[in-house]
Amino acid sequence: MPALPSPAARDLAALVRERAGADPVRLGLVLGSGLGHIAEQVEGPAIPYTELPGFPHAGVSGHNPRLHVGLWEGARIAVLGGRSHFYESGNPAAMRLPLELLAALGARAVLLTNAAGSLRPDMPTGSVMLLSDHINLAGTNPLIGEATDDRFVPLTDAHDPGLRARLRDAAAAEGVHLHEGVYAWWSGPSFETPAEIRMIRTLGADAVGMSTVPEVILARFLGLRVAALSAVTNMAAGLSSEAISHEHTKATAPLAAAKIERVLRRALRDGL
């Protein structure tokens, strides 16, 4: 059985309903670096994380640390405009309470987005990748310390086949070329070395980034269906002459963000 949202999450849900209305949300959306502007399009209130007791700090530039609840393309959704990363606190479960809140608000699925480096020459900067699977290279897990047997979460279909099919259909309808591949979670905050990238490619990854995987694990722990999209912001170290930096990530993220927005809009209009 999936874990239930904590009492803290249920209390937060009551607070959010007072601000945004009692109707349940269809799904949750977590926005990565350079994608926070999408949250501003939701027709409904925006609640700063600082007004949500217990919410993690999300202090990485390029994120929008507010919860938006309302309508987007006719669907009632809850959008986390920014995330807390493992490298900010050393806590791989930092996003547990926000995801519990999404479940407490009625979401049965969550869509995750991130900025990632490509390991494939045919997937250049500006591409969008649908995650088919992931590799945890961070050496930790957000369920370490969980006392119940719920911690033994199967991840065979962690990236939900049905949701992925709907996103493929939406991308095709919008004329967006949607790559698919395996995402490797690197702890950060430093970027990878060229030697590390060669290792990661050998292990079978197609893209690498510093988020998402702990959220996938936590979401499955909570019984939420999951799909994830990467905005390719750079070629990984040693694969091009790009000067990799967080500023570069923020500058190039809009190239793929516009495509992701079109795919998400279409998917919601089509009933995702």
Describe this structure in words.
It is a single chain. With 272 residues, this protein is an alpha/beta fold. It has one domain (7-269): Nucleoside phosphorylase domain (Rossmann fold, 3-Layer(aba) Sandwich). Helix content is 31%, strand content 22%. It is built from 7 helices and 9 strands. A 5-stranded mixed beta barrel has the order 5-8-7-6-9. Strand 6, helix 4 and strand 7 (178-185) form a beta-alpha-beta unit. The radius of gyration is 17 Å and the shape is globular.
What string gives the helices and strands in order? Answer: HEEEEHHEEHEHEHEH
Fourth-tier CATH superfamily name: Nucleoside phosphorylase domain
> Helix proportion of residues, in percent?
25-40%
Q: Report the sheet with the most strands, covering strand number, pairing sense and barrel closure.
A: 5 strands, mixed, barrel
- At the first level of CATH, the class is Alpha Beta
Report, as a whole number of angstroms, the end-to-end distance: 24 Å
According to CATH, what is the topology? Rossmann fold
Tally of strands: 9
| Number of distinct helices | 7
Q: What is the mean predicted local confidence, pLDDT?
A: 92
Q: Please, how many domains? A: 1
Q: Spans with pLDDT under 50 lasting ≥5 residues?
A: none
Integer-rounded radius of gyration: 17 Å
CATH architectural name = 3-Layer(aba) Sandwich
DSSP strand content: 15-25%
Shape: globular
How do the strands line up in the largest sheet? 5-8-7-6-9
Overall structural class, as computed from helix and strand content, comes to alpha/beta
Structural key phrases:
single chain; about 270 residues; alpha/beta; Rossmann fold; 5-stranded mixed β-barrel; about 20% strand
